[in-house]
Structure formats: structure tokens, C-alpha cells
């Protein structure tokens, strides 16, 4: 009882810091891997951060807020992940499981920003940067945006604005200035094109990394250019955070930093485009009033939780649109990671059948993750807390868990995708493979570390 009272008092005191409508700054990197910054996602684990890339502003943000060791993207590819963020649902429930999806199972009037404005009409919203969906930012409630960019990588010919990062940052500053002047709280999403291939960076930043191993004088394999592009992105993050200070609104602004999907790492299995942990586990750092600094949180969270979180901070008690599957991080954030995240569904689900050699889906419940391959009808079970690299398939040792998760996964997909699409999956009918040739991509026997083996 004493613990419950103390926890309630902590949340009450922390919540008082948000007495007026807060601003929300959501920074979304493109293709940044779990260990793609110099911030360790797991304290003491060197492989959970980059030894080459320098991100001092993110390090400062982490010292001021909470870092998540088990933060997930809603999908392993950008378009689908970003759709889930805007709509607060898994991609399969939304029926947005590939870039060509058009028949979403939820109206854009239920988007994050449209719902926020229904809850509080004083809010203004902007989206600057990458946007590839057929729905416009305006239809989802944004008052200012770059429109439908349809630009996958953001490359520019302007040496002063590589990857468009600095232009996005300037537009963000102008928008925040205008809202402060007019007295509006705001939701601002910055969808940077960095660190998507092909890398671009300021010449002055690149000079710092001359001689780095793996430098390739430009192109996708140039590690020096990737390091410089990452530092440029970090510089832009620092500039946006400084703007909050200069405008005097940092004390009432929730800042969320993460990526849309993952990439290859030294610790995690898989990468962008597949459902190994490397493809879906993300860096995440959150700062705001009442959020204790320097805390590492081990609670699993996922990017489509953002809708519920924003509404909980901006308009506590306002009903979420029917079908939203995410839960609010607010209790977790204001309790230094002690309170749980409560969601309508107690599972994370991913679905990926395009641009991958082995069509696959995955589900995580508790510490267990089941990875199911539709072409071989094989399900691999991992304890992703004890086995971070997904090297040991424990399905044989836990048949009840594996069976339960497979049943739950298929029911979830069937409900979201519809009978016709689900039946095609079961029959082994998939869209034409445009990714790695069979045997080269993620799948049974295709494990980077050997090879997920049945534990003995």
C-alpha cells in the first residue's frame, strides 16, 4: 500500500509540470539502426552504441531524459512504419503492410493530429521532411508541411544542405517561433531523410572523419560519409533543442527521438527489410518536464504508442479513436520507468511479405518473440531478453508458448488483412519477390549468427 501511495504521489507531482497544454516535438530519423548513435541503448553494453559515430547532442538529450533499450518500430520499412505512427495501429490492423497499400482500415480523420485538434482546438501542427503516402499531411491535420515529397533519400545538390537536414531544421525553427508568438501549443514532426543511403554530409564535417576505416569516397559503403551524415543530423537535433531554450518553451515541451526502422548492428540479428531485431528495434530517447534524466528503461515500447501518449499529455481523458492499439507512455515516463504501459492489445505484431526472400510475420508477447515464415510454414521462438541476437530457437522446449503465439499472430493478421488476403498467405501466394534472392535474405537457416539453433 505504501508503495502504491508513493507511486501515485510521484505521478501527481510529475504531472503538475504539465499544467498547461504541452508542445510535442517528434524527431524521426530515417533508417537509423539501434546502435547508430553514440548513446548506449543498454548501459554497459558497448555494442548497443556506435564506436565510430559521434552524436553529442543525443548524448545530452539522454542525460536529460529516458533512453529505451527495447523500443520498436511498427515495421521494418519506412512507409508502413510511418503510417502506423500517424494512425496509432499495427500495420496489419491498418492494412498498410506495404508501400502500395491504399485501402486502409481507418479514416485519416482518426489520425494523431486530427484527434489532437478535436481534443484541443488551440493546437497547431507541422510536418517537415519525408512523406511518401498518398494521403496528404493536410488531410491528417497538419497546418504546415513540405507536402508529399515522394523523395526516398532526400539527396540534394546544395553543399550547405546535405540530405536537406539543415533546411528542415530552419523550417522547424520558424514554425515554433510563429506558434510562440501567436500563443498556440504545437505538435511538430521532423522526418529527417538522414541517415538513409546514399550518404551526404557537410564538407567540414566529413573532414573530421578522414582516414576512417571503410571510407569509400562517396557511395553507400562510405563509412566516413555515414559518420559525417550522422553527426550533421545530431547537429540539427541540437539546433532544434536550442531553439526550444531560446523561445523559453523547453520546460513545457515533450521531445521524442527515434527512427522509422532499423539496420545492421553487431549485436542484433537481421536488418532493414526483415523482422529480425535489427530491422525493428530502434534507438529511442524521450525528454520532458517530470521525466527523470539519465534513466534507462527496459520496458518494451513501440512507435504506434505515440498517438495514445500525445493525447494523454495534451488532453488527459480524451477518448482515443476506435481501433487505436497503442498505449500511453506517460505513466512510464513520469515514474522513471516503474509504471507499465497499458494497451488494448498485449502484443506487438509485424508483417513483411514484400522485398524479402522469405515472407514473414512476427509477434512479441512478454519476453518471447515468434518469427513465422509463410513459405516454409516454420515458426522460430526466441527469448529476446536473454538471447538478444536471436541465436537460439526454443520452440521445441516451449511448444505451448510457440503454439499460442502462432495462433494469436494468425488471428491478428486475419482480422486486419481480411479473409481473402489471409487465405492467399496460407496458400503460399505472395507478391513477386523484389528483394534478395531466395537463400540470401532473412529466413530459416539464413541467420547472420548461425544460425538460430534449437536449444538443447
Question: What's the topology here?
Answer:
Elements: H1 2-15, E1 23-29, H2 56-64, E2 66-68, E3 71-72, H3 78-87, H4 91-94, H5 112-119, E4 124-129, E5 144-145, H6 165-182, E6 186-191, H7 203-207, H8 223-246, E7 253-259, H9 277-280, E8 281-282, E9 284-287, E10 295-297, E11 301-302, H10 306-314, H11 330-334, E12 348-352, E13 360-365, E14 368-373, E15 378-383, E16 392-393, H12 399-417, H13 419-427, E17 453-454
Helix pairs in contact: 5-10, 6-8, 12-13
Q: Could you please describe the fold and organization of this structure?
A:
With 456 residues, the chain is α/β, with parallel strands linked by helices. The protein folds into two domains: 315 residues, Alkaline Phosphatase, subunit A; 102 residues, Arylsulfatase, C-terminal domain (2-Layer Sandwich). It has 13 helices and 17 strands. The strands form four sheets. An eight-stranded mixed β-sheet has the order 5-4-6-1-7-9-2-10, with helices on one face. Strands 12-13-14-15 form a four-stranded antiparallel β-sheet, covered by helices on one side. The longest helix is centred in the middle third of the chain and has 24 residues. About 4% of the residues have low confidence.
